[in-house]
């Protein structure tokens, strides 16, 4: 456990806050905050430091161009959403996407859930107004309630303990699924439930599943049935946003005597909290987990290089992932100078594309949405830029759900703006539904394959 004053390893909370921490809740009762933090400091780790190191090794392969990262899950998890069906559905769509990417593009896929901790949200505005009532904005279940009442919107630190418990329950189920038979490759057909089967992409998936099944039968016949066919490696991630939670979950690893944030394997710093001298960069600069930083359209190459110097001064392979979220209309202009200058500075990172956060708009009905075509266009732009520079498009970071929601428009089922109200369930940003997620996986697999077909000297 890291005491609040572990000298030299982790600054105490007050010192962190004194740096000016963006996007933090204003708690009305400091004693209640202290009590929640103390409670969390005594809880067991959610992940083990050695697992974080394993993920770092895998991300090093991503940064070398030898693997592809699939990072996905809800925009904002909710406490009510911690049900067996919900967790299974999310895992299932990620497994299906990973199979498509691995099989269709012949590339190892590192699987990273945006889950078991993704409960805190940075917001554009501190308040939300409905009619003539203005209340504090909803900042995720980690902070306050979604219900639009004054009581619900008051930040409650006990929620941080609830985040821990919900994350533990989710991770427990995920671990059971991925090692206990559900993720066995022989389940590849069973993951395709009837709803998806009846869609165009579902039929395409069935073909892939048939081919995999034949290959598995052949392998078994010749006596090869490796352990990797029966389980998958799966890791957890979330935005490290609320300092009280991340600080309380930072512990000294008994093997190495170094600090790890044991709330997840991978933590990222958001676009709104990546200030070089800010608290979030300071805290994550001290922990040994693999970490990410979101880079939006205002990021200069100097910003990115300075972030790398602060967060990865020893240039450790797999330590740092840059997750760009420029917007479909900007990525082809903004990404090339960024990647070129970062590379010229000798900084080695995994480059990952978040095609969601630069492409949000408000539909005429008032729903926040994203166009599937914009999502694809940003990923295609990301691939084109890296292709042009000879660098590796290392992965995608996607807000998605395993359910058949109606939050993003377009895709093979041509979801229209008028359909958004049918099943809009996100408490923050719109997610790809299950069919759209699978369609994305096939399109990205095509992009990866086409890249492979290009002769190296033509790159
Ligand atoms: O998920 C990211 C942010 O929390 C979200 O885009 C902010 O949304 P807002 O602009 O509605 O506050
Ligand atoms: C807030 C998020 O993204 P960004 O920091 O890129 O806006 C997010 O991924 O939930």
From TrEMBL:
Pathway: Metabolic intermediate biosynthesis; chorismate biosynthesis; chorismate from D-erythrose 4-phosphate and phosphoenolpyruvate: step 1/7
Enzyme Commission (EC) number: 2.5.1.54
Single GO term (MF): 3-deoxy-7-phosphoheptulonate synthase activity
Organism: Nocardioides massiliensis
Protein's recorded name: Phospho-2-dehydro-3-deoxyheptonate aldolase
Keywords assigned by UniProt, alphabetized: Amino-acid biosynthesis, Aromatic amino acid biosynthesis, Transferase
Alphabetical list of Pfam families matching this protein: DAHP_synth_2
Family to which this protein belongs: Belongs to the class-II DAHP synthase family.
Class of the enzyme per the UniProt entry, highest EC level: transferase
Catalysed conversion reaction: D-erythrose 4-phosphate + phosphoenolpyruvate + H2O = 7-phospho-2-dehydro-3-deoxy-D-arabino-heptonate + phosphate
Keyword Transferase set for record: yes
């Amino acid at each position: 456990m890291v005491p609040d004053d572990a000298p030299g390893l982790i600054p105490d909370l007050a010192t962190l806050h004194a740096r000016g921490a963006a996007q933090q809740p204003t708690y009305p009762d400091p004693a209640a905050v202290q009590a929640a933090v103390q409670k969390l400091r005594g809880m067991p780790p959610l992940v083990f430091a050695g697992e974080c190191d394993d993920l770092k090794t895998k991300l090093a392969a991503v940064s070398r161009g030898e693997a592809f990262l699939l990072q996905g899950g809800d925009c904002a998890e909710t406490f009510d959403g911690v049900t067996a069906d919900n967790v299974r559905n999310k895992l299932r769509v990620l497994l299906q996407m990973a199979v498509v990417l691995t099989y269709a593009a012949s590339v190892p896929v590192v699987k990273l859930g945006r889950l078991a901790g993704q409960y805190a949200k940075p917001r554009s505005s501190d308040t939300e107004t409905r009619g003539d009532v203005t209340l504090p904005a909803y900042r995720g279940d980690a902070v306050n309630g979604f219900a639009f009442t004054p009581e619900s919107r008051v930040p409650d630190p006990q929620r941080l303990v609830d985040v821990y418990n919900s994350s533990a329950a989710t991770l427990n189920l995920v671990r059971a699924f991925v090692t206990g038979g559900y993720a066995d490759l022989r389940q590849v057909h069973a993951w395709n439930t009837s709803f998806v089967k009846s869609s165009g992409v579902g039929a395409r998936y069935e073909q892939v599943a048939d081919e995999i099944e034949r290959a598995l039968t052949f392998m078994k016949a010749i006596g090869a049935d490796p352990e990797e066919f029966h389980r998958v490696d799966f890791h957890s991630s979330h935005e490290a946003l609320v300092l009280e939670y991340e600080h309380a979950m930072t512990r000294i690893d008994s093997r190495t005597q170094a600090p790890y944030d044991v709330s997840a394997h991978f933590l990222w710093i958001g676009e709104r909290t990546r200030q070089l001298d800010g608290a979030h960069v300071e805290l994550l600069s001290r922990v040994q987990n693999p970490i990410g930083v979101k880079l939006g359209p205002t990021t200069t190459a100097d910003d990115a290089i300075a972030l790398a110097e602060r967060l990865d001064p020893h240039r450790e392979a797999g330590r740092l992932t840059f997750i760009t979220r420029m917007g479909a209309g900007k990525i082809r202009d903004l990404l090339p100078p960024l990647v070129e200058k970062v590379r010229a500075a000798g900084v080695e990172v995994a480059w990952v594309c978040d095609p969601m956060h630069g492409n949000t708009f408000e539909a005429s009905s008032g729903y926040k949405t994203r166009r599937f075509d914009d999502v694809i266009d940003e990923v295609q732009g990301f691939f084109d830029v890296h292709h042009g520079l000879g660098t590796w498009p290392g992965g995608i970071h996607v807000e998605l759900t395993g359910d058949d929601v109606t939050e993003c428009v377009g895709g093979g089922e041509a979801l229209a703006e008028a359909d958004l109200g049918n099943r809009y369930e996100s408490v923050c940003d719109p997610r790809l539904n299950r069919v759209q997620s699978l369609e994305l996986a096939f399109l990205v697999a095509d992009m990866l394959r086409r890249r492979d077909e290009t002769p190296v000297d033509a790159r």
